[in-house]
Write a structure and sequence with these properties.
The chain has 129 residues and is mainly α. Helices cover 75% and strands 0% of the residues. Helix 1 runs antiparallel to helix 3, helix 1 packs antiparallel against helix 5 and helix 4 packs antiparallel against helix 5. The two termini are 27 Å apart. Keywords: Membrane, Transmembrane, Transmembrane helix.
């Protein structure tokens, strides 16, 4: 299956924008689904995470029409690695009892996102810098 980089960036960017809005305004939605209580500390981290997701959404929106390049591949690989690590951390937190089984849905989305990003830049080799 060949995924177009433009399409993957559009969908992942939209997901990041949605996460920005959720983490900024209603972080309890995700925290409750993960069986994690809301506190001033989790609220602080949620709002800071919202800023990171907004930045990622902007990068993907601006990068989606870029021609194949080492830079485009590096950004996709970097965010794919971030998603894979988040998935592993989520599973670890569930195993340790710090998060409930609801975090599995996040881990599945993160793994799929990592795969989609890597797949979208691997169907055609990027030119060297």
């Amino acid at each position: 299956m060949t995924l177009r980089f433009h399409t993957v960036c559009t969908w992942v960017g939209a997901l990041c924008l949605a996460l920005t809005l959720i983490w900024m305004w209603v972080p309890e939605l995700l925290l409750q689904s993960w069986s994690v209580g809301y506190s001033e500390s989790t609220g602080l981290l949620a709002r800071r995470s919202a800023a990171l997701f907004l930045g990622i959404a902007l990068m993907l929106a601006r990068l989606r029409s870029a021609p194949p390049s080492a830079t485009r591949t590096a950004v996709a690989d970097g965010f794919a690695l971030t998603c894979a690590v988040l998935a592993v951390l989520g599973l670890g937190e569930m195993w340790a009892g710090h998060a409930g089984p609801g975090i599995l849905s996040a881990a599945v989305v993160e793994i799929f996102t990592a795969w989609a990003l890597v797949s979208s830049v691997r169907h055609r080799p990027a030119p060297a810098i």
